[in-house]
Design brief:
220 residues; alpha/beta; Rossmann fold; two-stranded parallel sheet; 10 helices; 8 strands
Length: 220
Amino acid sequence: MTSPVVLVPGLGLGPASYAPTVRDLGTPYRVVTLPGYGERVRPGEDLTVETLAQRLLQELDEQSVLVGHSASCHVVVAAALARPDLVKSLVLLGPTGDVETSDWLTLAERWVRSAVWESVRLVPVLAPQYARTGLVSMARAMEAARRYDLAAAISKLKRPVAVIRCEHDSLCPADWAQRIAELAGGEVWTLPTGSHMPVLTNGPEVVTFINRAAGVDNGN
């Protein structure tokens, strides 16, 4: 029996970011947007990872596979810690969250090193999503996310975890991905192409891991 999949977009992104991935999903799925992650942030809105996790949990009515991308990986981990009964497993795509390298300057430098590997063909796809969420909303959400210690949180997790990154992703370097996978007792995979947008550039490969987590036979 397969499990449903719930996908949370990365910072500033929306449902369109998962289009190349969900095309071949072999189980029911939903994309859940959150403030800063596909939705504009209202003045005074609480953007702590734990609060966003509670909003995500309100969208779950059965045990599901949670998929996060970039900073939204924090949210799905926090949700799994709060309600493990609602989470079958996690798939983390290019997770950020290393508090030792979360200052704004380091994040900016790593973003640039990652961005140079992305295709210019992504610009028409990304620009409308970023515009919808808004740069102010993105900055506020990132300010909250960068303070979340993903390593400390994931070490408490009691659910299967797969960490997926791309070869040229400096926001999720290989040693960081390996570290959090080990802390979770999970697995880590580096895709040979792409950078920080595997949901857009490596959809067929990403869906293989999500299908497997959901119990879908990828051979069919």
